Give the backbone structure.
Amino acid sequence: MSVASRARDPKLISSTTRLVEFLRDLASARRTPVRDVADYEKVLWLADLPEDIKVKPDATLGGILFSIDFVRLVPPPPFPEELEGWLDPQEVENPRLDAPKLAATGPERIRVIDENHVEDRRYETLEDRPDVRELYELWLDDWRAWAERERRRLRQREWHRDLFTIAGRLSQADDEWELVLATGLLAWTTPDGTRIRNHLLVTRVHVQVDPDTERVDVILGDTAPILQDRELLGDLPEFSPSRTDRLRERARQDDIACLGASGAELLRTWCDRGVEPPAAYLDDWAPAQQRAGTTPQVRLAPALVLRKRDQGALLGYYDAMLDALTGADAHAPLGLAQLVEPLDREERMAFLREREGGGDATVSAGEPLFPLPANPEQRLIMTRLAQDNGVVVQGPPGTGKTHSIANLLSALLAEGKRVLVTSQKTQALRVLRDKLPKEIADLCISMTDLGRGGSAELEGGVKALSARFSTYDPALQAEQIAAARKRLDEARREVARLSERIRALRESETYVHADVAPGYRGTLAEIARRLRQEEPACSWMPVPMPPDAPAEPPIGVGEAAELAELLAEETPQRRARPGQHIPDVATLPSAERVQTLIDEERAARSIADEAGTEISARLEILDTAQLTWLENVARAVDGDLHRLGLADADAARGEDEWTARALADLLAGRDTTLWERLDGLAERLAALQEAVRRINFRPVVHPRLDGPAEMGAYLQAMRALRDHFAAGNRLKRGLLRPAVQRQAEPYLKQVSVDGIVPDNAELLSILIDDLEARQIVEQLRRGWRTVGVEFAADLSLDEIASSITDAYQRLAVVRRIREAVVTTAGELAKLGVHVPMRTLPEWTAYATALRAVRLRLEAEQATAALEELRESLERQAETGTPAPELREAIHAVATRDAVTYRLCLTALSTAHQELARQRRCDELAARIRAAHPDLLDVLADREKWKRHRSTWERAWAWAKAYTFFDEQRQPGLEQRLEAELEAATARVMRITAELAAAQAWDAALRRMTAEQTLALRSYEQHMTALGKGTGKYAERYRKLARQAMSKALDAVPAWIMPIQQVLETIPPDRDSFDVVIVDEASQASIDALFLLWLAPRVIVVGDDKQCAPSVVSHGELEPIFNKLATYLPDMPPYLRDAFTPKSSLFDLLRTRFGGLLRLREHFRCMPEIIEFSSRQFYSDEPLVPLRQFGADRLDPVQVVHVEGAYTEGSYTRLRNPVEAEKIVERILKCIGDPAYDGKTFGVVVLQGTEQGKLIHNMLLEKLDPKEWERRRLRVGTPPDFQGDERDVVFLSMVIAEKRPAVTSTEWQRRYNVAASRARDQMWLFHSVSPDLLSPACLRRSLLTYMLNPPVALGGAMPKDVTPDTPHPAFDSLFEQRVFLRIRERGYHVMPQFEVNGRRIDLVVSGARGRLAVECDGDHWHGPERLEADLARERELKRAGWRFWRVRESEFYFDPDAALAPLWEELERRGIHPGEVPVADGNEAGAAWSAVPLSAEDGWDGLGEDDDVEEIVPVDEEADGFASAPVASRSAAGAAGAASAPGRAAAKAGPAAGIREWARRNGYTVADRGRLPEEVIRAYQRAHSTD
């Protein structure tokens, strides 16, 4: 049951309309008017042309405006040798100077004598060499004459260089840039302050470089001039667009010569109508230099302007689409409808059926007419397209996307489809144009390079269509198609017949008899011949074997050799080992442990015996806990003695000190009462310390007092006065002074606190504290004198208080020692042990005895440990029959013999080995005994075994084999069949192209309308009248022919053009094509969605791992999300939010169709080059390199480390001058190297654009344009190179110091593209070592890979290959024997060479190529394997491989005769012995591994702040013009950081201020996100003059 079409569903039409409205709104918002011509990329004023260059003012469309010849610099006249060192060579070569200056000193040093007659040396001066000035003056006249001539030539050279650079840029990126002739410079400051300085009239021009003469021609384009006043002034109230509509129409329709009278007249008329007030017109070529005034002025001021293409054409497309969607007969186009609402396959097919009038809407599912070889993936594309209206193909770099599109285009044209092939950039389309067979190419109009003949391609396509139309006869065409189909069927049948013959022939060789024995299968002749051949070497094997002997030996040759050795060395001792208990040595104490225990026991007993005393003997009754407690007390006493300085020798010196005396008295019980009384005074210390604390070092002066009575009176008076003050009273004067004051007054005159008389309670309290503290000190002094301790009399109060406090602390330690000694003596007494401790020496003797007790205890513990060890060994011996070595070990422990114990452990280890060998011997012998008992006697004879061990498996198989049969021989037959098959296949391809073209022409001519037919006839008529194009009416006929051609274009079956050209060439008619094929779709933004309006079917070819549309910051996305929610509210957000500038066409459409098809076979690069991208970015499905090559190729990977490099600038404007110089030097060397003859060159800069500009300018100075063109030299960023390739590519890493890692998806895409552009050789120039790069950084990944790349050719051939022993590198002995024969001749040959998951038996390599050698032998199994092998071979032949086959039967019958044709084939292909150097060791590159890939979008690694939303876009192309200002400079190797002052160099100013200024001046900018580049430049220019 068919599903009805929803093309007229109002809801679907409404959703589609809103999507188009959103896209138009988005494009319109990004269209910012350029007010100032200086904001364009490059402006060349024609007024500045050299005088010799003549402009043709009346040149019309397609005519040459002017030409500039390339002039080579003439070297300056050589200066005399005498001036060497006096002149700067750079100044001599600079004609801009007035004259090169003479240096003040010369190069030579002369001897001089000073006034002191001392000899010295100095550089000569002009006074010393008057001849130098004379020679200079004579030479200078010639130099000035040369400089005058060169200055005139230099101006022409600079113009030529700029135009040459523009030509190169347009050839690489004419989808983004255009060159126009601009006239009518409007200069005006509007009433609201908007400043305008831009041209009104523009005409597209092209730049052509003659490859022979290097002349540059500036040619007017084929499109009419455009009056761009609406774009420039549309938002200004002073502009009247309706009054200039007629002028815009005149510019489009009339033949306006922009520099001629008609152009001037158009501009004058505009001045009267365009603005208020009217503008003044000046017919002046020079641009106005003064600032624009309030009165508008227009002057001719012609200029060549390089600018970005305008969005006007896209907006016009959207307007036309909206008109159609909102008209009376509105239809929802399938391509766009499926984006706004999910449509299943049946619904989509219903759309197609309605469009095609209810007929068959599907693409044919039969065999597609592919004129080029195709792999299964390419055929699957057509299968998918037959089942749906779209297919998404992922095409990694170099995987034949163009080849696939060429096949698809041919097959679709053959089915009568009208096809548009487009891409964001033109590079891939140019390759496609060259890839198409001529028969198909004639059907297509390829507009891939208007600057280099694109208009001629257009005209040529119409001519071909016209020629076909003039001779078209439908009946005759049908006969030709039928005849071609018949020939194709015959050719295909012939291919099938030859393939079947080859299959049958190989199957006869591969048919095998039931296995008799290893190596004895297949024909009886093979088995019999093998038996005869093997008998001399194999008859040593005992026969007959038992009937049930296995087909293969029960043990391998290695095991047999092992058994022979085991039998030969067998002894009675080893035979007894299986019945013995042999403990694991690892479970026994080590020899070192036993040695340690013995040593510890011996040492402990010796020390204990030496330390023993009469006291220690008494102390031996102590148990462990008591001993430990006493030891702790003794250690505490010992610590206190050290604190008092009385330990050991210090005790003797301390006898004269009071601490020693106090300790002695207290231990002995002398004067204890005296010491206790002194200790009792310690309670006064607290009062003393508190008083001292309150005084706090304040100086106090007391009166001189005589005796205690006077002191008491003084203290009483001061206390009374303090209490008086504390009650709130003050000192008074006069007779009414209180009594307390009068009593104190005699003292107050002599006292002070802090130098003043105490007049308040606080000061008096301090004075009283001081007096009381001194009384306490005196009391304590008296107490210490009783024990003979005196303190110095001249100490301050604080010092004497501190000294007394210290003395009491030491006394407390003494008392603590006495208490510990008394406690110890008491505890010992409780145990019945009495030890004298009344003196310090007695205590020391006791402590020493205590240590001796501890040592004795440790000795006993060591003995116990040894006894425990011996007992554990005894328990081991009780388990089974102990090994004799175990008994000996037990005895060694008992006798304390560590040496014997060590020997026993060694012997036990040996016993384990003997046990293992005996068990192994018994195991192997049992297996042989079970299979072939007689063989044991042979194996026991070591000498006999050694003679025959190499034939172990062969002899066993020989003994088993018994039948054979003859082989079938047909030498040379397969080679002849292969040649016939190759020719038949080529014939199929050729006929396919012819048939596809015939069917396509028939379909195209049948569907032509009457209008198109009339237009074609008119075109022929006018072209005939034009003749040679020199007649009086030639221009009229040419114009009429163009008009007729424009009407006939719709009949063209296929168009190939970039997306921008589609907008300008193809009318916006719904479904005007049947299929749109979009190449490099990952580079196409959502602006390209209009393509889905043009056709209901789409094939999208791209790669999300290659460069995508420019990164958009999150700040820019938010308003877009809001717009989407407004325009498409019914669409789920997860689908809706994909419609942002961040998404590519590839991203959008791969979610709408079925499974993604991936192309994996890589045809472009050498394997070592593409391996990086394959492993780093496509590890899930690695690419398969199929490129053929020989040993005379360039080394694929080269790395140059640049020493002494540094960087300038920052972020995206980083550049490395030293690295740039090295790259230029290397390019120049390569150009001079014959190995690079005919090679094309490219330079890819891995970061920013400034480095590319720098290299571009350096190369322009060094290379002639002719060499530039010859090498197709290109300098740019990875996005510039996407879809393009060069033979040799030079990568510049740019950075010269440690930088943040680059890991994001945008960097991944760029590195993937950069590393996959080189066909033959890729250079990486780096100024930073890998150790300074993060392990996660893509820079490090690429650098480390290239420093250690894999080996693809010249790898080490396998070693140790013999004709009779299987080698793991081969599938069969047959392959090994052929390999050895080839190697013996000196060829480089590799076995089991893998290509695209398929293995080639042998590959022979030479200087000019490689040859695959297939060994058809008995290792094949059955027809399924054979068919797979045939398919494998066909795929590899399609990829360029050439095969030569040898059959096993032929080889064994006569090896020399079988291989003779191989030597002839190798010679014919130029493959000779000794041409390939053999690498040593394993393949390099094995250590490299890809870094994990980040899933983060955007940019990282640019500096401290990776947010690039307001940095000049990083995907800006290198243009070769003047570099941007340098922000800073940092030396190579500097730690870390970017060169900095930061982002200021990359920004145009504070973002908010720029936005405000931009809005005031008519620019449309968002609140957040990256500011457009033209806005930044306009802001800079506006403020540079303020």
